[in-house]
Structures are given as structure tokens and as C-alpha cells.
Specification:
The longest helix is centred in the middle third of the chain and has 22 residues. The chain is an alpha/beta fold and 481 residues long. It has a 6-stranded mixed sheet, sandwiched between helices. Strands 11-12-13 form a 3-stranded mixed sheet. A two-stranded antiparallel sheet has the order 1-2. It is elongated.
Amino acid sequence: MVVAREEKGQLVMLDRIREMVRLAEGLNDVGDLDPEVEQRALDCLSRFGQRLRSLESGNVSTVGTNTLRRSRNAEAFIIKAEEALGFPIEIISGVEEARLIYQGVAHTLEQDEKNKLIVDIGGGSTELIIGEGFVPKLMKSLEMGCVMMTKKFFANGKIKKDAVTAARIYVLQLMKEIHYNYRETGWQVAIGSSGSIKSIENVIRGMQLDKREGISREALQQVLKTCRQYKSISELDLPGLSERRKPVFLGGLIVLNGVFEALDIEHMAVSQGALREGLLYDMMGRRQNNDIRNKSITSLANRFHINHQHAQRIEQTAFDFFQQLRDAWFEDWQHASNILRWACEVHEIGRDISHSAYQKHSAYIIQNADLAGFSRQEQRRLSIVVGGHLGKISAEHFEDVHLDLRRMLLYLTIVLRLSVIFHRSRVASSLPAIGLSVHGDSLKLTIPDQWLTEHPLTINDLDQENTLLLNVGINLQLETN
């Protein structure tokens, strides 16, 4: 955990707390978390929560990475984890993890026009990114972390020649996916981040293998050669290697050696910034109206040839409704307004695939696309609103999200559905003043009588909508003035 204060656009680090939980160690072959390891994580989060208790939720960002991406009971664990920590936890994709790592490293470097290769070895995965300045160009997350490799090839703690060879081949096979594109793009400097790479540098310094800072290929190979002389991981006695890092040191060492070999790296600098710092800078960007999520949504809309004028008309009406219902329906109105704005912009992207039931295609794209800045849960929430904006609607549509969010997503869906109804003609005509008010489970629409008389199709659509909304416990009432 990192705690920082923003000062004049820069982060001043106030506190760092680190505990070795090794959550990946508790993940079995079918994706279940071991109860003992799970409890170890919950205890850690509870201690972290004490440090964060005085902060507002908007000032805290917590993410889960590879292990929770692979866990089949991740949502059940997150409910307990959020209770222990006291703040929401989001699961991010491998590509999003790579983007955040790049941001964390890039902000610690002097800015130039050089291409940089960033390598980060985590517990369950390794992220490799090539970028320039603050902009990543290539990003990849590979299933080869220090804990995962240790568990896969050295589960019994023995260091055997065949196991080391098998681990090396495994890494090189995974690197085949990317090595051509990465070497073709090229870089001028290679930089490593994360605890595994820092511990390898510490050992190189301790063994006095290289006078330069960072990690050279020759020194890296010498450390690996030394490790192979031991019979078990528990016997490793290397200067600069801490006891807490020892159990997973060899796994991370083999991964880094394979990356050096596959990409023909001769020297790698080591950065102090990584994922946590990237999260902080990303959060700071959102506070300064530079939210990468907005750019991701706009890019998605452009890719699927959205009619931007129509989307803007939908958004204008939706936010008119939203403002009228905000006090009654939307307690966390800032979070809700973000989802509504994004939903208005991309709700029709599925039309590029098929006009029939296009909302289903829209929802699928949103849930499965790599959207920079978004967590998996955020993409799921957005896909639920978009997927429910047309056709039948039921309570089951909202069941696979956290209980506290179901009503908000239902209400946002209703706002979007009504906005779409009033713009069915898809022409730039002005709407009259439409009133919306909540009375228990009833939603009252107040519309000028003359306008309704001139728009009988809208009356029919609203009658049908009332029938559909009764399935989710909402009674839509129409009143004229």
C-alpha cells in the first residue's frame, strides 16, 4: 500500500506498507482460493484499513490483479475483502494492469522521446509494455509470475535441474507470443519494476557481480547458476535476499532470465514506481478532469461508427431526467452520472454488428473489450445498463452485481430506456418540458397534452414500457398538463 499527497500536480509519498500475502499461492487448479491463504489476505487488508480509515472513498483506489482474475470465487472473496478494508475493490484486466504499471514507471523517469520497455513480474503474471513518454504502445500480460512459477515447477521446494529447464522452456514458449512484435517495435532502454526485480538487483549488489546500477544479463545468469547449486529453495543463502522474498525468488529469477533471453536484453534499469504509483497518478488524472475512461469510451464509439448527434440528444434528455430523479434515486450520483454518460455514448455500438437485438451486441462488446481505465466490474455495470436499455427487462438482469448497486443500475437503465423512447424518430426535434417524479414504486411522467396528441406513437411506446417495467416493480404513470 502507498499513501501519497498531491502537491502542484506531483505526488509526495507519505507512507508505504508492505506485507507478503502471496494470494496466488492459495489458488488451486480449478480456481478456488485456499481458506488459509484467503484469511491471510483478509487479515492484511484489515490492518491496511486501519491506516486508511480517515480517508474518503474517492481518495482510495484498490485493485485485484491476476489471482483474482483467475479465481472462480473472486466475487465472494471481494465481499469479505471490502468489509475488511473498508473500501471498494475492483478487478482489473491484464492489459489495464500493464497500462497502470507503465504510468507508475513513466512518472518516475525523466521524460524524453525514447521508446521504453517496462517489465513487471508479479505473483501471478508478468506485464511487458513498450511506450514513449506517458503513452504505452504495446502491452501484454503473460501468465508467469514468481508465485505461480514456484508453485508450478518447485511445489515440493526442491531445486532440480529438470524443473529449472522446464520452467525456462515454459517462459520462452509464452514469450513467443510477443517477442517478434516487441523486437520489431524496439526500445532504447529496458526498465524493470516490482519486488521480484528489485530483489534480484539486491542480490546482484550483495554478490558484487556488477558495479553498475540495474541488472546485466551476465550478472543475472550468474545468480541463476548459483541458485542451481542449492538442493532446495529453503537453503538459498544469497547476500541481499530477504527471508520474506526467498520462497518465490527462484520463480521470479527464471521469469526475468527468460525475458532477457527472448528479447535479447543486455541491461535493465530498475524503477521504484509500479502499479501502485500508476493507480495514484490515474486517480489524480480523474480529479483533474483527465479521466482515461472518457477517452476509452469515445474511442469505442468511433470504432463502431456511432451517430454522435443522436447519442448527444439521448444524453441531453437522459441527464434532464437524471437531475429530476437524483435526490430520490441516486445517492452516489457522481458514480451514477459517469455510468449514464458512458452508456448514452456507446449504447448503440451493437448496431454495427446487427440491428436485431443490437443492445445485446452492445453489452457483449462493452463487457469484453479492453477499455483503458476500466475495471472488470465497471465494464460489467456499464454493459448491464446498455444491455437493458431496450426490450424486455427483469430483476435477473441485475443479479450478478453487488446488492448495493442493483437498484442504481436498474434506475439508470430506466432513465436510458425513457430517453431512447423520446428520441425514437432519430431527428433533431426539440422536446417539450417533461416532468419526472418518484412516488414510492411509481414513476410519474408529466407531459404537455398537445405534444402527446401530436405523438401517438410515443403514447403507445410508454404504455408498453409501463407493462415491461412492472416486471421490475416500477409503475410508470403518465400525466398530462
